[in-house]
Amino acid sequence: MSRAIAEFLDHLRVERRMSVNTLDAYRRDLDALVQWAEAAGIADAASLDAEGLRAFIAAEHRRGLTPKSLQRRLSACRGFYGWLLKHGCIDANPAASVRAPKAARKLPQVLDVDEAVQLVELPTDAPLGLRDRAILELFYSSGLRLSELCALRWHELDLREGLVQVLGKGGKQRIVPVGSHACAALTAWRKQSAGKPDAHVFPGRGEGKPISPRAVQLRLRQLAQRQGIFKRVHPHLLRHSFATHVLESSGDLRGVQELLGHADIGTTQIYTHLDFQHLAKVYDGAHPRARRKRGKDDDAT
């Protein structure tokens, strides 16, 4: 089983071009399957049936894994056994009929427009101020993923036209608009850094290496506190904020899906719930009969 999983992970890395973080998640989930299977005396992947997978998920549930983690475990198993089925190693995918517990869908936190503007309008006179301003403006302007921003090179940016070409999940390319403020910040940063076309827009410490995702995460947290924003600010929060604000203004869910690079419209639909929450707050705050005050009669019932 371990050998088959190693070949499957190589397939994901080479042919599917999955990110390092995604591969690590697959590896952890499938390693858990191997450990359970070995304890159960199952050495061959083809010997595990649907009943065995249900027992594996049940054991993980008893260990305290959340429904979301169990869903991820099962998704990795489906992918692995689907790959085995495609290569004729098994006759059916045993994970196809197994279901994990439903997880409550947690709505992401977002910055409101004023908070977003307060964050990105960072003074640039500090050391690396131009770089930090360019990072913030690009995140909020274009809704990039953290991995996409770190990997970005100058030749993938067209600052004259206000466009950026990014390589997203699964090796899928998309072109995203870049706002005028972000273009100005990136132009200023390029002049200071003298970035060559093939150089990373945001270089790291090593020669020719990009800035690390961890460095960006820590820097955003520091910059948010410096700007007086005490929410937990992280790269995906800016992506959520970008999507929510575009949807609030346009109402174009398909357009937001394209901008974010979501393969499934269902992933994008979470922002419609955020938009409804915003409208509900406006209604509750503005409508004179939105919320009924509790009175004596209410206490008596």
Number of helices: 14
Task: Outline the low-pLDDT stretches.
Answer: 292-301
Q: Specify the overall morphology.
A: elongated
Write down the CATH class of the largest domain.
Answer: Mainly Alpha
N-to-C CA distance: 63 Å
Overall average pLDDT: 84
- What class do helices, strands and sheet pairing give? mainly alpha
Written as H for each helix and E for each strand, in order along the chain, the element string is HHHHHHHEEEHHHHHHH
And the CATH topology of the largest domain?
Answer: hpI Integrase, Chain A
Summarize the amount of helix as a percent range.
Answer: 55-70%
Account of the protein in words:
The protein has 301 residues and is mainly α. It has two domains: 2-86, Tyrosine recombinase, N-terminal domain (DNA polymerase, domain 1, Orthogonal Bundle); 113-284, Intergrase catalytic core (hpI Integrase, Chain A). The chain is built from 14 helices and three strands. It has a three-stranded antiparallel beta sheet, with no helix packed on it. Helix 10 (235-250) packs across helix 13 (270-286). The longest helix is centred in the first third of the chain and has 20 residues, at 20-39. The protein starts with a helix and ends with a helix.
Question: What order do the helices and strands come in, and which of them pair?
Answer:
Layout: H1 2-14, H2 20-39, H3 50-62, H4 67-86, H5 113-120, H6 129-142, H7 146-151, E1 157-158, E2 163-167, E3 173-177, H8 180-193, H9 213-226, H10 235-250, H11 253-260, H12 265-268, H13 270-286, H14 296-300
Antiparallel strand pairs: 1-2, 2-3
Helix pairs in contact: 1-2, 2-4, 3-4, 6-8, 6-10, 10-11, 10-13
